[in-house]
Q: What sequence folds into this?
């Protein structure tokens, strides 16, 4: 009994189907992040065309009576608008499809990228300026850090956050 438990425990510790955790540097992370965003943007166009084609196929086969209106709108205009909506829906859903394609293509890096992404967003959350300091003359710069694509851009983002905070607190103690 005991030897069976030891063998089972040994088998569980040696058989790991989870991919090895690869430590990414910040430069590698930003390069992979840039690639992922490119995949997301590129996938938007085929998904839009697919949505437009599917909408056209569906609405072109529906019977149309030109004598009848639907809520006062001509059915052809309504079907055309619905077809365009299908294309827009495909365009909006395209980045999600691109992200899935990217994760499938980079399966071994996906877990490391997720870990580094969480660490990056912890840094962004800790270092961003207080949104209460925003005004028309002092708008909030890149709250979520979406435009950061390198270490130099991260340093620039940090400077902008500090400048925003400094401008927001400059007149705080003065009375008019």
A:
């Amino acid at each position: 009994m005991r030897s069976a438990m030891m063998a089972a425990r040994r088998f569980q510790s040696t058989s790991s189907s989870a991919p090895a955790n690869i430590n990414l540097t910040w430069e590698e992370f930003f390069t992979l992040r840039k690639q992922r965003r490119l995949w997301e943007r590129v996938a938007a166009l085929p998904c839009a065309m697919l949505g437009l084609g599917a909408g056209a196929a569906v609405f072109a086969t529906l019977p149309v009576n030109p004598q009848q209106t639907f809520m006062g709108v001509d059915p052809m205009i309504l079907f055309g608008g619905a077809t365009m909506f299908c294309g827009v829906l495909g365009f909006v859903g395209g980045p999600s499809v691109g992200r899935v394609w990217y994760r499938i293509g980079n399966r071994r890096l996906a877990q490391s990228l997720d870990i580094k992404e969480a660490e990056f967003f912890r840094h962004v959350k800790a270092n961003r300026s207080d949104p209460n300091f925003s005004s028309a003359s002092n708008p909030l710069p890149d709250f979520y850090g979406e435009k950061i694509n390198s270490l130099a851009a991260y340093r620039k983002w940090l400077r902008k956050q500090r400048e925003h905070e400094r401008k927001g607190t400059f007149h705080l103690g003065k009375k008019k």
In short: The chain has five helices and no strands.
